[in-house]
Every structure is written in structure tokens, then in C-alpha cells.
Design goal:
It is a single chain. By secondary structure, this protein is of the alpha+beta class. The chain has three domains: about 290 residues, no CATH class; about 160 residues, Orthogonal Bundle (Transferase(Phosphotransferase), domain 1), CATH 1.10.510; about 80 residues, Hepatocyte Growth Factor (3-Layer(bba) Sandwich), CATH 3.50.4. Strand 19 and strand 20 form a beta hairpin. The chain is globular, with a radius of gyration of 28 Å. The termini are far apart. The N terminus is likely disordered. The protein binds adenosine-5'-triphosphate. One of its GO terms (biological process) is skeletal system development.
Length: about 550
């Protein structure tokens, strides 16, 4: 441990001495010093290895948080730099300030009657107002002005805390809570096992980790080898500042996860500040774990599951349209911004969310133009804002990334007209989110209660005999879209529907009514080629085709 610390100290001195060196030296320097995380093109094993390596490097407990000092140091350096470099640095500081302001705005915004407005204490609020920029605002001074008197949870999430000095970082968060739920902290992730790389985007890398035998979580942190860091370091030659700039995205995401509470928004379980890669106070968000959305895979699943995803999405957008923070739009709406948790769609990437409704002037029609690759829309301007632009942008994106692919195909034929109407109306932006939700809930009602079944007066060709408390172990055949890869497992509303399915499959000679149900409450049924492997199974019923 001591050795690791000495190496870390040595490395820090060298990095400081190198003084935010020019970018073309940086790659070589990183290689020489082997700062893990700055290597590129890692495969997943390397990433997991790196995760453990970084964890070992973290200095625990005794080092003081010097982020405020580092920012001052960076500012001093920027003054001593040639003017082009100095303006570069100011540019970086300004970007930090913008992100800082945004996070503060989300924290300050009063919840509409949700009772979470007291999360920002009056003293904190006054302090934040004191630090409002004047015309000659200097980000360094504002950051330095923020004191460290409070230890409130919300302060820890704020950039002001992030940027300020002293020793709070290794406090375990277990005694704190988010909306009444105890939070996880550094000690919770100190001994994680089964770390697996899940994915990364422009800024962040995400790992799956098992906290104990019962809870797996996602650990989200700035990707030191990611595009965001790489581009910033190339431009500004300041890994520490670039890290801080990027980490505001995690702070924003954590703030939004905490302020926006909905079943289709991933839960924030906690967070941890640690030293890593010679950068002090890096932040790791601990969140609910999902599985990345694979569109190709989704196209192969049952309509019922695909409909669930669309309904989850619409319920989410309905909430976002009138959230406690106002109308929230997801600027980056690609499917990769969502994950699945037990079949339910949840948004994970909130760093591109925005609550700003575009400002406009009624005399300039282009102010409220919404441009998409295949369609443009123009919205009305009302009281200086484009009316419902956030809601409409979300809805059109839901149409183009989700509904067109997932809603109509292989849907029950009687539901097709309504589904087509939903697809067309959202594609034309004729409906708002309220009407869209209403119509999707109607589809759910029709489906769940079997009203979609056609009044088939035709008698089945064969009789089916039931055998109670039995199942058929083998005699599987494949069908589409089965819930099981090597058998034909489908959901049905009734025995009558199961008989119709069996009659429509040439191989089907029997089926097993299991005691499992899907999310809509429909029964799962195994369709079989015969009954040779009939065996007893409590609660299940075999239906055997008798002839015909
Ligand atoms: N909680 C989670 N569970 C499982 N996978 C996740 C989770 N959060 C994120 N991921 C995966 O990690 C990837 C990167 O995460 P995230 O989108 O937050 O990073 P990013 O840098 O903001 O990406 P982008 O460039 O898309 O903005 C996601 O595309 C997703 O597939």
C-alpha cells in the first residue's frame, strides 16, 4: 500500500512538473508513467483489469481533497501561459461554469408539490445565490468562494462540493438516503466481485458489479480512455481539468436521477468519491443495473414484450412532460440511452436531458422549427417559448426509434388498425403525449382482457383432453416468437386461444398449460409434438389432441 502511495505521489509530482503539457507529449508521458485509463482500444478484459488496477491505486482515508487548490493552480498556470493557451484554459473554465450552473439549476428548481424542494437548504440556496456571476464573473473565484461548512447530501452532488476542499470524500453514504431509501457509498463498492464491462459511450464507462450475493449494480464513471476525455486532453492538455469537466455529466445525471422519480428512470443507489489515475476525487455513480437494449434482439421477441417497451416509453414521456423539473426532453434519444430491467424499459443516460423549452419570437417562424432527418415540423410560439417543443421532440423520437419498429409487426390482427393509428398520429405529431398514452393503455386493456380475439365461430378440428398435474418434458419444436430458444413457448389469453395456436402448427399434438404468467397476466403455454414424455408436475395441465 505504502509503495503504491509513493509511486502515486511520485507520479503526481511528475505530472504537476510537466504542468499540463502539450498534447503531443501527453500520449508518450502517459505511456511512460503508465497511467491506466489513458490507453486506447482496450478489450473488455483489459477494462475489467483496469477497474481493479485503479481500485488498488486509490488512496484511502488520509489524503486531503485539494480540488479547490488544483483549480487555483490551473488558473495560475493559465495566467502564466502564452495568451492562446491562456484563452484555451479560460474556455475550459467557462465550459465548467456552464455545466456547474446547469446542475445548480436542477438542484434549485422547486418541485411542483412533490415535497422535495427542501433538498436544497435555505443556507445553501443563499450561498448559491451569493455566488451568482456578475458581469465580470470569474469561475475560479466563485468556485473558491463556495465554502465547506455543510455536509448535506445534496452538497456532495453539487459541483461546488466537487470543487471544494477538505476531507468529506471517504465518508460512507450508508447513513444518507435518497427520498427515504438508504444510499450506498464507497464502502459498499470496496469489495465488489464479478466486475464486468458493460458498455461505454462518449463520456462514461459502465461496469456491472456484484455487491453481495443478492445485489448487482451498475458502476458509472468517466471513461479515462473515452472520446470526451481524449478530445479535451488533446485540446487543453489538462487531464485533471478535463476530468472535472466530464464528471459534471455524471453529477448532472445523478442529480436528475434523484429529482426525477419514475419506474422507467433508473434508480440511483448512491455514489462514491475516490482518487483514481492521479486525479483526485473522481466520482462513481452506483445505479440500478439493466441490460443494454439490442434492437435486433428485440425484433425477434414477442409482440407482447415489444409492446411493453413502447408502453414503458410512453409512460416515461408522459411523466417527463410534466416532471417536477418542468418539461424534460431527451436530446439524445438513441436506443442505447435505454436499458431493460426485467423487461421494462428504463432511461439510463440523462446527461443529455434538458428542461429548456426553446425561446422564440412570434415574428420568426423558424425559431420553433424541429428538424429530423426525414421530417420537419414547425411549432407555435407562445409567450416567448416554443409551445410543447420538449414533449413533441420526445414523441417524434419515440415514433422514429421505437414505434415504427416495435409496435405493428406481428401484433394481433384486430389490434392492427389502432396500432397503425398510433404510429401514424405520432409520426405526424397529431397527438400529444396524453392522447398517445391513453391509446396505448387502451391497447393494453384490449389485449389483457382478450378483447382482441376474433369471434371465431369455426369449431376446432380436433378434440383436446386435459390431464391435470402433468407436463411433457421433451418433444419440443421451435416456433416464432417463442419465449424459449429451443421450444415453442407462447403466451395465451385462454385455453381456446391455445387450441387455436396448436391447430395452426402442423407439428403440434399437445400443449402444457404452465403456472407461469407474463407481465400482462397471460398464461405461458408449451406446445409439443407428442406426449411420450408425460410426467407429473403439480399445477400444470397437459392438453392432448385427440384426433381430427
Ligand atoms: N445501468 C446500466 N445497466 C446496464 N448498462 C448500462 C447502464 N447504464 C449504461 N449502460 C450501458 O453503457 C453505455 C454507456 O453509458 P452512457 O450512455 O451513460 O454513457 P455516455 O458516455 O453518456 O454515452 P453516450 O455517448 O451515448 O452519451 C450505454 O449505452 C448502455 O448500453
Amino acid at each position: 500500500m505504502l509503495l503504491i502511495k509513493q509511486i502515486t505521489m511520485k507520479r503526481r509530482k511528475i505530472v504537476v512538473a510537466a504542468g499540463f503539457c502539450l498534447s503531443f507529449f501527453l500520449g508518450t508521458l502517459m505511456n511512460l508513467l503508465y497511467i491506466p485509463g489513458f490507453e486506447h482500444h482496450q478489450n473488455n478484459d483489459n477494462r475489467v483489469h483496469r477497474y481493479y488496477h485503479e481500485k488498488q491505486q486509490r488512496v484511502t482515508g488520509d489524503s486531503q481533497l485539494r480540488v479547490g487548490e488544483l483549480v487555483t493552480e490551473a488558473a495560475a498556470k493559465s495566467h502564466s501561459k502564452p495568451s492562446s493557451e491562456s484563452s484555451h484554459h479560460q474556455d475550459l473554465m467557462l465550459q465548467m461554469r456552464e455545466r456547474f450552473d446547469e446542475v445548480v439549476r436542477y438542484r434549485q428548481r422547486q418541485a411542483h408539490g412533490s415535497g422535495t424542494g427542501d433538498l436544497v437548504r435555505p443556507l445553501e440556496r443563499r450561498r448559491l445565490m451569493d455566488s451568482e456571476p456578475g458581469n465580470n464573473w470569474d469561475p475560479i473565484k466563485v468556485i473558491e468562494r463556495t465554502d465547506n461548512r455543510q455536509t448535506h447530501f445534496q452538497n456532495r452532488l453539487s459541483p461546488s462540493t466537487f470543487m471544494r476542499a477538505k476531507s468529506e470524500k471517504h465518508v460512507t453514504m450508508n447513513s444518507k438516503s435518497i427520498n427515504g431509501t438508504p444510499m450506498l457509498g464507497c464502502s459498499s463498492i470496496a469489495n465488489v466481485t464479478n466486475v464486468q464491462y458493460l458498455g461505454s459511450g462518449y463520456t462514461k464507462a459502465v461496469y456491472k458489479a456484484a455487491l453481495n450475493s443478492s445485489l448487482s449494480v451498475a458502476l458509472k464513471s468517466v471513461d479515462f480512455g473515452g472520446h470526451d476525455m481524449e478530445n479535451c486532453v488533446k485540446k487543453y492538455s489538462s487531464p485533471g481539468d478535463c476530468y472535472r469537466l466530464a464528471s459534471f455529466k455524471i453529477l448532472k445525471e445523478m442529480t436528475l436521477m434523484e429529482r426525477l422519480q419514475h419506474p422507467n428512470i433508473l434508480k440511483l443507489y448512491g455514489y462514491c468519491y475516490q482518487d483514481s489515475n492521479d486525479i483526485q476525487d473522481t466520482v462513481t455513480a452506483i445505479t440500478e443495473l439493466g441490460s443494454p437494449l439490442e434492437m435486433i434482439q428485440l425484433l425477434q421477441t414477442s409482440w407482447e414484450e415489444r409492446f411493453r417497451i413502447c408502453l414503458s416509453l410512453v409512460r416515461l414521456l408522459h411523466y417527463l412532460a410534466r416532471s417536477p423539473l418542468g418539461s424534460v426532453t431527451l436530446l439524445d434519444f438513441r436506443p442505447r440511452q435505454f436499458v431493460l430491467v426485467k423487461g421494462e424499459l428504463k432511461v439510463t443516460d440523462l446527461d443529455d436531458a434538458s428542461t429548456e423549452e426553446a425561446p422564440c419570437s412570434p415574428s420568426i417562424p423558424t425559431d420553433c422549427a424541429m428538424e429530423f432527418p426525414a421530417r420537419n415540423f414547425s411549432l407555435p410560439c407562445s409567450r416567448g417559448r416554443c409551445l410543447g417543443i420538449n414533449e413533441k421532440r420526445n414523441l417524434y423520437n419515440a415514433y422514429r426509434f421505437f414505434f415504427t419498429y416495435l409496435l405493428p409487426h406481428s401484433a394481433p390482427p384486430t389490434l392492427r388498425p389502432l396500432l397503425d393509428k398510433i404510429v401514424n398520429s405520432t409520426g405526424e405529431l397529431k397527438w400529444g403525449i396524453d392522447e398517445t398514452l391513453l391509446q396505448l393503455e387502451k391497447v393494453l386493456h384490449l389485449y389483457r382482457n382478450g378483447f382482441y380475439l376474433q369471434n371465431n365461430t369455426q369449431m376446432p378440428k380436433a378434440e383436446y383432453k386435459s390431464v391435470m398435474d402433468t407436463s411433457i418434458l421433451a418433444e419440443n419444436y421451435r416456433c416464432w416468437p417463442s419465449y424459449q430458444h429451443d421450444g415453442c413457448l407462447l403466451s395465451v389469453f385462454s385455453i381456446r386461444e391455445a387450441i387455436d395456436v396448436c391447430e395452426s402448427h402442423a407439428q403440434c399434438q399437445a400443449f402444457v398449460l404452465t403456472n407461469q404468467t407474463t407481465w400482462t397476466g397471460r398464461r405461458l403455454v408449451f406446445f409439443k409434438t407428442g406426449t411420450a414424455s408425460l410426467s407429473s408436475a403439480k399445477g400444470q395441465i397437459v392438453y392432448v389432441r385427440a384426433g381430427g
